[in-house]
Structures are given as structure tokens and as C-alpha cells.
Amino acid sequence: MTYQAPVNDILSALKAAGVFKAGIMNGSDALDEATVRAILEEAGKFGSEVLDPLNQIGDKTGSCLRDGRVVTPPGWSEAYRQFADGGWSALPCPPEYGGQGLPSAVAISACEIWNAANMAFGMCPLLTNGAIDALHIGGSQDLKARYLPRMISGDWTGTMNLTEPQAGSDLNAVATRAVPAEDGTYRITGTKIYISYGDHDLTDNIIHLVLARLPDAPPGTRGISLFLVPKFLVGDDGSPGERNDVVCAGLEHKLGIVASPTCVMKFGENGGAIGFLVGEENRGLATMFVMMNAARLAVGVQGVAIAERATQRALKYAQERRQGRAAGAKEMSPIIDHPDIRRMLLTMRVLTLAARGICMATAAATDLSHQAGEADTRTRAADRVALLTPVAKAFATDVAVEVASLGIQVHGGMGFIEDTGAAQHLRDARILPIYEGTNGIQAIDLVTRKLPLSGGDAVTSYLADVNVTLNNLRTAALPQMEFALEQMARALEALATATEWIVRKLQSHPQVALAGATPYLQLFALVAGGDALVRLALNAGNDAVPASHLRFFAENRSVMAWGLAATIMAGSVSVLDADLGVTT
Ligand SMILES: Cc1cc2nc3c(=O)[nH]c(=O)nc-3n(C[C@H](O)[C@H](O)[C@H](O)COP(=O)(O)OP(=O)(O)OC[C@H]3O[C@@H](n4cnc5c(N)ncnc54)[C@H](O)[C@@H]3O)c2cc1C
């Protein structure tokens, strides 16, 4: 079944997030709805015609390591060339280095399309864009001039080298070393693991961004620096020359995204890889966070992508497969007529819409934080981005796993058979809650760093904004919405109560607050997802479908809010008290 880019749904999400208002689209009128539609339709064509046909091939073949070089699956190189030639790698990038400078909200819309069509392929430009961001913000003029144009054109790709065997979630433990050389460069030695697209045959150079420690660096994250380490050193004429001392020493065998090479990278086995400092010594993590925050939102978008793809596939199958008789039917019915299948399909649909809405709200706030005329508006928007990023990442990726699993269930036994394609979605989705900061780490980030932001104003102003959205819904008086509205108001109340509780506990009993972090993020997302669906319904004009989705969400998901609040406020203590049965 061929993937169809949901251009109308994405455009609705862009509108509902207020993206076409002045101040977000670079303050210009040029990027109106028709232009964005044209971009997304072209992206959709590329996704369906070029990337989608390689998705199952990539899954079956995988990438492999041959004579020290990673070889991608058949067709991959050609598709990548077309991708770069089409200018797709340049969408959100700075115009002064050849980028198209499109807003983040439009870029993530295209990112959804690549990843829905082929997530293992989509990983590569996603990481390159993160590396471009970090280099643009932290790099010297020389580094930017030498590397950015070729990365933006797609001639070269970028990687993110954080993880080491002893340093996963905890980057304090990074041990890769960087020793200053007399010529102002550094010699990098160490091993990085799980590096996506650490090596491949798509381009003639790969630009690694690497976290490492100087010999006299303070311990912990305050002693981490960021380095650019090219696979091939780049001469003054801009062309790749001598091979640098960095190799791919192994490829991981994985549950999903098997075509995306996950590499063990060895730096400096022969005297030290030549690295160039990005930003200041010992301040590398701050720059890397630029890349990680953008990547966190992009990984959330990968979640939306897989959820959309799984939903499309299940909807089609449910219309074709006949089993049993629905009430009143004289012959075997398509399974879509059975209420239990309807429940699953609607759950898949609304979770996807809610996840897309949260990601889009985060991207719109990102654009506002750069483009708004008033400094105060920019600051408040930056707070909103910081608050919503862990929610977007964790919720949308949990949704991907839930929706992909429901997609298999809708297919029955066929869902478990690889040829159908539904199983691949679940296998691919399963990495999403793990990489780019596990969802547990996102929840801890939300509770410990984001709730205290701006003295608590970031979260209180968010809750106030959701209240305004609900009031708008009340005023609109959509038919059959009374119970739904009541449930969403109760969900908002539950979130406000749980927020006060968890902020208090953070001071008095931090372990209890940490035990409640994941259900707290889930409750937050329930409210944020409801907010996104209300905005969609209010923007829908005469189309009654978004209102029916909103009602389904509120009556089937928002109703869970007080249960989650109880899990946070009562259940957290038993997390600490209950016996795990581990003997020491
Ligand atoms: C396919 C794939 C691609 C990847 N791509 C890249 C890449 O390109 N670049 C890169 O640098 N890395 C990459 N990674 C690494 C990835 O980001 C890490 O796997 C992830 O950050 C988790 O680290 P870990 O595996 O060491 O797990 P651990 O940190 O050991 O975590 C194990 C469990 O403990 C929990 N945990 C850990 N610390 C805490 C805490 N303080 N409080 C509560 N719970 C905690 C975690 O949430 C998790 O559930 C990739 C990984 C995979 C599998």
C-alpha cells in the first residue's frame, strides 16, 4: 500500500498552530498557504514515488559493513542524490549559506513526509539538519564557510556523536579525549557507539560533531567540548582530501530501521583524529543542546510519521477485509463496520492528530522565538518551546508505538506477517521512545527543568492559554460537545492540580516527584493534545469531521486525566515503597 502524504491534515495543523500569522512565516506574505501546499505536494510526490518503494527493500536488505565501509541498500544512493538535487536538504537552513530559510513548522511538515515514507532514510537528513543548526550557532566563520554550504546542499551529511559505552543518558561520563595540537586543532581519541549514519556510501564526506573532554577539563558536563571531525579533511579549495583517523568499526543488528546504519565509531586509533573546536572549550554541551532540542522535536515528528503511516495502512485493510456480520448485515461485513475496529481506527487517527498538533505548536513557537518583533514575545515563545519539546518528543513517540501496535491488531494474523508492512512500522517505531533522550529522561526534564522555567510562568501561562482555547470552544457552541467540553475542563483542572503537587514535591521529596514524572508528562500531553484538537475543530469551517475527532478524543482519552492525576499524586509513593523482590 503506497503512502499518501496527508497534505490537507498537515495544512490544517499548520493553520491551527497559527503558523500563517505574521511574525511566524518570516514576517513575509510570500509563504502563504498556497505556496506551502505546493511544497508539501511536491514533497509528498517524492515520498510516495522515490522513498516509499525503498522502505521494505531497506528493511529486508539492511546496510552492511564491507571492507571497512558501510554499504546502504540498493537504490539508496540514487534516492539520496535525487533528494539533495531537489533541494530538500536545504529547506530550513540559513540562506547566507545556500539554505532556503523556511520556517521550522514547514520543515517539520516535510520531515514528517520523509519519515512516513521511509524512516530509515529520513534519519540521515534529520541528523544533518541538527548538525547544521549546531554549527551555524557555535562554529567559527571559517568552519561555517568551509562546511555549511556543502552540508546544506546535501553534498555531505552530518552526524551526532554523543553516546559511549559508559555514557548513554548520562553525558557526565563522556570520556572521549581531545588534546590541543600546536596548529590550533585537536587530536580526538575514543569510541562512540550507536552513531546513526556514522558511515555510509551516500556522499563523499561525512561531518561528525563529537563530544569530548580536554585533558584539564572540569569533571561532569561542565567539562565537555564540541568538535567537528570530518571523515575526509577539507582543503582550502573546499574539496575533501586526506582521510581522517576515524573509522566505523562495527554495525549494530537491530529490531527496526535496519537500513539506517548504527555504527561503532573509533576515533584516533592511529594517533588521533583531527578535530576543530566548535564554540568555546568546555561549553560544548550548550551548543550540542541546540542540535539535541531540534532533533528531539524531529524525533517526535518521526513518531507522527509512523503513526500516520500505520493508520493509513490499517484503514485501507479494514475496508477490504471481511469477517463476521455487523449489526443488521446480511452477509460478511468489512471489519471496519465492527465497533471494536472503529474504536481502534479512531484511536489511531486522533492520537496521530494530537501528536502532530503538539509538534506543530512547538515548531510554531520555535519560529516565533526567532521571528517575532518584540523581545518579550520572543522570550515567551522560547519558554514555550522549552516547555513543549519534551512533551512533543515523548508523547508523539509513545503514540507511534501504540498506534503501530493497534495497526497490527486491526490486521489480525496478517499484521504479524512481515509482507503486510504493518509489523515493520512497530519494529521501526520502537526506537523512538529510546533515542534522543529516552522518554523517561524527557519526563524528568519536564518536571525538574521546565516547570521551574521563568519562575513557573512558562507553565502557568500555558495552562492559561489552554483555558482560553476551551473558552473559545464554549463560545463556538458546537453540537454534541457538552460532555466533551466538561471532560477537557476537568483534564485541565487535573493538570493544574498535579502541577502544583509535583512542584511542591520537587522541593520536599524530590524522589517522589521523579517517580511521578512519566505519568505527569502523559497528563500534560492529554491536555496539550486536547488543545490541539480543539484548535483543529475551531478552524475547520463547515467540515464537521475534526469536531467528531475532538469529541471522540475527549470522551475516550481526556476522561483518563483524573486517573493519571491519582497515579501521580498517590501512586508515586508506592513506586518507592513497593518491593521489587530483588535480593542483594
Ligand atoms: C538505533 C539507535 C540509534 C542511535 N543514534 C544515536 C546517534 O546518532 N548519536 C548518539 O550519540 N547516540 C545515538 N543513540 C544512542 C541513544 O541516544 C541512547 O541509546 C539513549 O540516549 C539511551 O542511552 P543508553 O542506551 O545508554 O541507555 P541508559 O542510559 O543505560 O538507560 C537505560 C534505562 O535507564 C533509564 N535511565 C537512565 N538514567 C536515568 C535516570 N537518571 N533517571 C531515570 N531513569 C534513567 C533510561 O530512561 C532507560 O530506560 C542511538 C541508539 C540507537 C539504539
Itemize the secondary structure elements and their pairings.
Blueprint: H1 7-16, H2 33-51, H3 55-61, E1 64-66, E2 69-71, H4 76-85, H5 104-117, H6 119-138, H7 141-152, E3 157-161, E4 177-180, E5 186-196, E6 206-212, E7 225-230, E8 232-234, E9 240-243, E10 246-251, E11 262-267, E12 273-278, H8 284-320, H9 339-371, H10 375-411, H11 413-416, H12 422-429, H13 439-450, H14 457-476, H15 482-508, H16 510-515, H17 517-538, H18 545-556, H19 561-577
Parallel strand pairs: 3-6
Antiparallel strand pairs: 1-2, 4-5, 5-11, 5-12, 6-7, 7-12, 8-9, 10-11
Helix pairs in contact: 1-9, 1-17, 2-5, 5-6, 5-8, 5-9, 6-7, 6-8, 8-9, 8-10, 8-12, 9-10, 9-17, 9-18, 10-12, 10-13, 10-17, 13-17, 14-15, 14-17, 15-17, 15-18, 15-19, 17-18, 17-19
The biggest sheet amounts to: 8 strands, mixed
Tell me the fraction of residues in β-strands, as a range: 5-15%
**Which compounds are bound in this model?**
flavin-adenine dinucleotide
Mean pLDDT: 96
**pLDDT under 50 segments (min length 5)?**
none
Strand segment count = 12
How large is the radius of gyration? Answer: 24 Å
- Helix-and-strand structural type: alpha+beta
* Shape assignment: globular
State the separation between the terminal residues, measured CA to CA: 53 Å
Percent range of helical residues: 55-70%
Tally of contiguous helical segments = 19
